[in-house]
Automatic annotation (TrEMBL):
CDD domains: GATase1_AraC_1. It comes from Prauserella shujinwangii. Residues 215-301 form the HTH araC/xylS-type domain. InterPro entries: Class_I_gatase-like, DJ-1/PfpI, Homeodomain-like_sf, HTH_AraC, INH-QAR. GO terms for molecular function: DNA-binding transcription factor activity; sequence-specific DNA binding. Keywords: Transcription, Transcription regulation. This is AraC family transcriptional regulator with amidase-like domain.
Length: 301
């Protein structure tokens, strides 16, 4: 179980908050516990969109497994009055020091900077605020034109909707990309994970479509990619003929079902090999009869 604590500041953007909250809530609906908490310096929190929110003023007891998220707020500049009290900043810093993860959306990176959590780390924020963030925290390395950056249990994301990508990334890290893909599908959003480096898994990279029949086929392959999967079984999952499922799958993903399954096997095998497993053992673990096919796929790149 991961408790998610949202730290609310005056004039926060609703989507900065609601996007990640919806991701974790949907993951909970799928059986992965993410209790949500909302705290603020003052119980009454005005938002940039005019809705007033009510939050607790007492933080829950946190463990290293928990996540603290600071949504962004409406501000043309980062400078000015600190958006959070020194007490709240101390709580943020203490949570990270104890081994916990902290995250921000958009201008929320300024709060992490005020807490001293950006020093020596890569980070990002909304493109209109990147220059100011770099000036304000010269010991931070501001990465530009990315959706999110993770460095030392400090996760920062760009503006507004990128909080969804950040949250999907964290769900994928905790429960695997298949769960993140299911969350994205339930939310009817593209399952993106293109952060500061190539970290888009095959499961998520090829989910950027809205074809429900193809999603059902991918759900089956994701769950059983180490097994032989006859085209007839995939067609049954899609509710159409074998010829039609091949055509729909190719149109939605640019791949055949077999090639998609091979990519999942290859990705998992590379992960095992990176952890010290031999090529032969990795090949068997992902469903290949021997290592020859795995070696061919690795050579193909």
């Amino acid at each position: 179980m991961t408790r998610v604590v949202f730290v609310l500041v005056p004039s926060l953007h609703l989507l900065d908050l609601a996007g990640p909250a919806q991701v974790f809530s949907t993951a909970a609906d799928l059986g992965h516990a993410y209790p949500l908490h909302y705290v603020a310096d003052d119980a009454d929190v005005p938002t940039a969109q005019g809705v007033r929110l009510h939050a607790g003023v007492d933080w829950p007891d946190l463990t290293p497994a928990d996540l603290v998220v600071v949504p962004g707020w409406r501000s043309p500049r980062l400078s000015g009055r600190p958006p959070l009290s020194r007490r709240a900043l101390d709580r943020l810093r203490a949570h990270h020091t104890a081994g916990g993860t902290v995250a921000s959306v958009c201008s929320g990176a300024d709060v992490l900077g005020r807490a001293g959590l950006l020093d020596g780390r890569r980070c990002t924020t909304h493109h209109e605020l990147q220059d100011e963030l770099a000036r304000r925290y010269p010991r931070a390395h501001v990465v530009r034109d990315v959706l999110f950056v993770e460095d030392g249990r400090v996760v920062t994301s760009a503006g507004i909707a990128s909080g969804i990508d950040l949250a999907l990334h964290l769900v994928a890290g905790g429960h695997g990309p298949a769960v993140a893909a299911r969350v994205a599908r339930a939310m009817v959003v593209y399952a993106r994970r293109n952060g500061d480096e190539s970290q888009a898994s095959a499961m998520l990279r090829h989910r950027a479509h809205l074809d429900d029949a193809v999603h059902r086929v991918q759900d089956l392959i994701d769950a059983r990619f180490t097994e032989p999967l006859p085209l007839a079984a995939l067609a049954a999952a899609a509710g159409c003929s074998e010829r039609t499922v091949t055509r729909l799958f190719g149109r939605a993903t640019g791949l055949t079902p077999l090639r998609y399954q091979q990519l999942l096997r290859l990705e998992r095998a590379e992960n095992l090999i990176g952890r010290g497993v031999t090529v032969e053992a990795a090949a068997r673990a992902v469903g290949f009869g021997d290592a020859r096919m795995l070696r061919r796929l690795r050579a193909r790149g």
